[in-house]
Amino acid sequence: MRKQRERKKLIVNRSKWRSGDGMTQKRSSGKGEIRLLNNEGYMCCLGFACKQFGDLEDKHILHLDSPKQAYTAIEKLSNHVFHDCVQNTSLSKQAMTINDDSLLTREEREKELKALFSKFHVDLSFVGKYE
User: Fold this and answer.
1) Could you tell me which residue, 62 or 6, shows the higher pLDDT?
2) Domain coordinates of the chain in residue numbers?
């Protein structure tokens, strides 16, 4: 009998989520640069995941572009290739593409991210309102 994988939960707060190109209100959210955590206090979807899956503090993800830059293996997001080398997982790479896509509406982005994370046994939910 096949063992069922345990599903993880990930919650993204829309009021602190940074996505899209920032050029149009309907296609982006948040302020500042798209980072795991930026100076304005906004996070991309992977910033939320790093904090929830990797139990990382703000100081560990501030100004970083991707999970691998935290230099630690984070479940589902990054893994060690060898001693000092960490790489992003397929989930992280695909999530960055969707999160930063300037052509997607907010609704399309949420739908695509939910579908992607679900393939990796993560139940993604969005809470709160956009600023």
Assistant:
1) 62
2) 8-126
